[in-house]
Amino acid sequence: MSTWVYILKRIASSIPILFIVSLISFFLIRLSPVDPLAQLKLNPAISQETIQSETKRLGLDKPVIVQYALWMKNFIKGDMGYCTDNTKVSTKIKSRILNTLLLSFCVIFFSWIIAIPLGVLAAVYYNSWFDKFLTVISSVGMAIPSFFFAILMLLFAQKTGWFPIGGLTSVDFSEMNFISKIFDIAHHLILPVFVLTTISLCSLARQMRANLLDVLNSEYVKYAYAKGLSKKKVIIKHALRNAINPIITLLGFEFAGLLSGAALTEFVFQYPGLGKLILEAVMQSDINLVMASLMIGAIMLIVGNLISDILLKLTDPRVRV
Amino acid sequence: MKKVFAKLKKDKVPFFAFCVLFALYFLILFADFFALYPSSYSNRKMAYQPPNNIYIITPENKLSKPYTYNYIKSFNKDSFSIEYKQDRSKKYYIKFLSKGFEYKLFGLFKTNIHFLSVDKECNFHLLGTDINGCDVFSRLFYGGQISLTIGFLALLISFPIGAIYGGISGYLGGKTDKVLMRIAEGIMSVPSFYLLIILASILPSGMTSLQRFALITAILALIGWAGFSRVIRGMVLSIKNQDYVKAIETIGASKKRIILKHILPQTSSYVIIAITLSVPSYILAESGLSFLGLGIQLPDASWGNMLKEAQEFANILYRPWLLTPGFLIFIAVLSFNVLGDKIRDILDPKTIK
Predict the structure, then answer these.
(1) Residue B98, Cα to own-chain centre: how many angstroms?
(2) Can you tell me the ipTM of this complex?
(3) Same domain, B152 and B118
(4) pLDDT band at B32 (very low <50, low <70, confident <90, very high)
(5) Cys-Cys link to B335, which of A217, B1, B7, B17 (CB 3.0-4.6 A)?
(6) Which residues of chain A lie closer than 8 angstroms to B292, CB-CB?
(7) Which residue of A20, A143, A259 is in closest CB contact with B191?
(8) Chain A residue closest to B182 (CA)?
C-alpha cells in the first residue's frame, strides 16, 4: 500500500513543477518581440477567420495574465492552436512524440543492456587492462559532439551503402506489408540509435563501475565473502542490487539528456522526432508549435523522472518521499 | 593548488591532457600570430580550395626548404564543375617568423610578424577554404578564441548564481527553500537544449558580434545554474548543522555573512570539480548551437559554426578538410574530461586510492 501512497505523493509533487514549466514556456516566448500571429498573417492560404479565431483563442486583446490562463486552459483541453502551415499543432506533435519515444526507448534499452555488464566487469576486474581500456574508450565516447558523430556516421552510411541516409521510412513505405514496414523502420533506426547509444553508454558504464566499486568496498560485502560465498554470488546477489539503485535515479536524467541530445542527432539524420520539430518551429518562429513542444518536452521529462523514482521505490524500499 | 599540480604531474595521461589544453589556449592567445590571414579575410573566387600540400622534397629528389604550389581554379565543361589544379610552374617557399598582414597582439602591440607566411601572390591555405573562401586554418584559431572561452565565461556567471541560490535555499530552509527549489526544478524540467535554442532564437537580429557573444554566454549560463544550485543546497543542508555554524550564529553574524563567508567556502572543492567537469558541456552546447546557426554567427568564427558547412552532404564527401573543427572540439572536450576526472580523484576524499 505504501508504494501507492508514494506514487500518489510523487505525482502530486510534480504538479507545481509543471505549473512553473508552463510559466517559463509561456512568458519566455510572449516576452520576445515576435508577433505570435505574424507568420499566420503572412500566409495567404490562411483565411481572415482563422486569424481572428486565433486572436480570440489566444486572447491577444486582453492582458498577459488572461492570455496565460486561456493558453493553459486550451492546453489542458488538448487544443494547441494551428501551425503556420495551417495544420493542427496537436496532430503534428502526436506523431513526433511517438517517434521520439521510439528512439529514446531503443537507446535506453541498448545502453542499459550493454553498459551495466561493462561497468560490472570493469569494477570486478578493477585496474586490469579491461578496466583501463573501458576508461579510455568511455572518455573518448563522451567527448565526441553528438552531431559530429552523426555526421561521421552519415559519411559511413554513404560510403558503404549499408544504411539509409536519414529519415525514418523509405520512399515506398506506404506500399509495404506490415513485416517489411517494421524492418524498414528498424533499418532506419540503426544509425541514430547507434550514435545516441554510444554517447549515453559511456557515462552509464562509468557510473556503474564507480557505484559497484563503492559497494564492493563496503562492510557487508566483506562479510558476505567472510561467510564463504562464491565471488559470483556476492557480486550478483549482494553488491549489484545496491549498486544499481543510483543508476535507476539516473534513468530520469538520461531521458532528459536524450531529449536534448537527440535534437541535434535528429536534425542531422533528418529523423522526424520532437527535437527536429522544435528546431523547425524555432527557425520558422512558429509560436504555437514552439510553446506546445516545449511543454510536451518538459512533460515527457517529468514523466521520465516520475517513472525512475517509482522504479527506485520498487527496488529500494528505504526510499521515502 | 601546488599539491594538486604535483599529483597531476605523476599521472601521465591527465598531465598530457593538461599540456594539450595549455597548448590550445596558448595557440588561441596568439591567434593572430599563428593565423595565415586576418579574421575578416575572404576571397570568394577561391571558395572550397583544397589544402595546399607542403613539400620538402623537390621533383628531382632533393631535400629543400618547405615549399608549396599555388592552386589555379578552372571550370571543367564536361563534368560542369569547378576544379582546382596545382600550378607546378612556380615554387613558393614557406617563411617562418616573417612579415605578413598587420595585427595588434593582445589588441595592444602593433606588429606584422607571423609564424608562417608565403608570398602574397600565393593563395596559401593549409586546411583549404570554405564556401566564402575564408581560410579554414586561420579561422580555427579565431574560432577557438570563442569556443574555448565561452564555456569559462558562462561558468563565471552561472556558478556564483547557483552557489548563492543554493546557499540561500539550504540555509534558510522552510518555505523559502521549497519555493526556490521548485523554481530550480522547473528550469531543470525543461529539456535544456530546447530551452537553449528557443532563447537563442528570440535574440534580436541586428546585434553586433560582441553583443551576440555576450548574450549567448548569458543564455548558456542561464541553463546551467539550476542543477548546480541543487547540489550546493544539499551540501549546505549538512554543513549548516555543524557546530561552528552554530557558534557563528550565537556571535550574531548576519545571515548574508554566514552564507557567503562561512558556509559556501566549505563547498569549494566540489565547486572546482564541478567547474572542470562542466566546461566541456558548455563547449559542446555552444558548438551545437552554432552548428544550427543559432549561436555565434558569420562573419565571426566558432568551431560550431565552421562545422555548419558539414550540414551539406557534398561537403562531407568531397571536402573533408571542413570537418577539422569537429576534431578540435573532440580533443578539447576529451582533455577537459580526463583532467576533470583526475582533479576529482585528487580532491575527493571518497575515491579509492
Answers:
(1) 29
(2) 0.79
(3) no
(4) confident
(5) B17
(6) 264, 267, 279
(7) A259
(8) A17
